[in-house]
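Limitations
The C-alpha cells in this dataset are predictions for the assembled complex, not deposited experimental models. Users should treat interface geometry with appropriate caution, especially where small molecules or nucleic acid strands are included. An illustrative entry is reproduced here so readers can see what is and is not provided.
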Amino acid sequence: MFQEQPSGGHVAGTGGAIAPAPLPTTAPARVADEDERAARAALRAQIARLESQLSGIVAERFPFIAAPSAGGPAGGPRLPGLGELERCRDRLAARLQELSALAERRTEHERRARALLEAMKLEPGRYRYYRVPVRDLGEGSCGVWEVRPRLGVIGMLAGWWELTLSSGCP
Amino acid sequence: MSAAAPPDPVAGWRTPEVERELPGLRLLACEIEVGRRESLTGDSPPDIEARLRELSNRVRGPRAIGVRREPVPAAYRVFFRHIGMDPDVDRTPMESAMLERMVRGGFLSGGLLDDVLLIALMDTGVPVWALDAERLDGSLGIRTAADGEQLGRSPDPPLLAEGRLVVADSRSPVAVLFGPLAPSHCPRARTPRLALYVVQVPGVPDLYAEEALWSAANALQAR
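Predicted assembly:
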C-alpha cells in the first residue's frame, strides 16, 4: 500500500558513473527529529490545557459569554507541523485572554448589581423605581427586581416602598 | 427481541507515522450481520423511536452547553485541535448532535441506521460509523492520504488532499477521519453486513469506545 521512500536515495547517472553511496541518516538528524516530535507533543499538551480552560469559561458563563467563532483555517484532519501547532496554541491563548477579560468584566458587573440589590432591599425608599434585571445577577431567567410603591398611589403618598420581582419571562 | 452476541471489537492498524504523532489514537471495528427486517434508511421501528424520544427529553439546553466539559466530548474537542481542526467550526460529533437537537427541537429520526448510531453516540459520547462490509477489502486502519488519492472506489470518487487523515482498508481510503464516508462504501437500504467502527482518542476510556460499538451492533443485530 505504502512504499517507504528510501532516505538519501540516488539515481545513477548514465555512462556507468558510480553513484555516490546513499547517505545514512545521521545521529544529529535523528536527534533533531526526536526534538521536533517532543516539541509537537509539548504543544499538544499546551493546546489541551488551553482548550480545557476555554471550555470552562464558556460553559460556566453561558449565556453571558458566548464562544467566539474561531476563524482559524479549516481544512480537515491532518498531522499539523510544528508551525501550525504553534499558531493554534497562540490563537487559543489569545482567545483565552480575551474571554478571561470578558469574564472578569462580567463578574464585576454582577457584583455591582448584587450590591445594588442588597441596598434596594435594605432601604427601598432611597432607591425608588430602581430596577435590577435578574440577568445582571448572572441568573439565566428574565425577571426584574424593582422598587415600587406599595398599594400604588397610597404607597407613593405614604412613602411605603417595597422591592418586587416581576413575574419573569413573557 | 433477540440478537446474536456482537463480535469482539478488533483494533485497527495505524501507520507508524500516525502512531508516532498521535499515540492515543485507536480505531476499533467489528463486522455484524444486520438482523433487523426494516430498511436501514427507512423509518425506525418503535423501540428505536422510543429511545430517540427518551434522549430528546433527557438532553436540554444546559447540557448542550456544558457538554464541552464532559470528559469524553472534551477529549474529542482537544483531539480535533490536535489534528488541525477547530471544533468551533467543524463541530465534534457529540456537539453537532446536540446542536441539531436544539435547532430541531428533538432528535428527529433520520432512518434506522442513523438513529442507531446517534443513540450510541448520545449514550457514550463516542461516535460510531458504519460501512458496507462487503465492499471492504481487508481490515480498517488509520493513515494519511497520499498525493492524488481518492475517497473510495466509485466511478468518480472525491479527491483527497495529500496528508488528509483517513480511515482506509487495504486498497483505498474509505472515509475521512471524523468526516464523510466514501460514496462507494456507504450502507444502502438492504446492506446485509456492516462494518462498524469507532475512533477512540486519548482520554476516552476503552469501556466507552467498546460500549458505543456494542450498543450499535446490538441494536442492528436485533431480530
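Some entries come with short summary sentences. For this one: The helical segments of chain A are 27-61, 82-122, 153-158.
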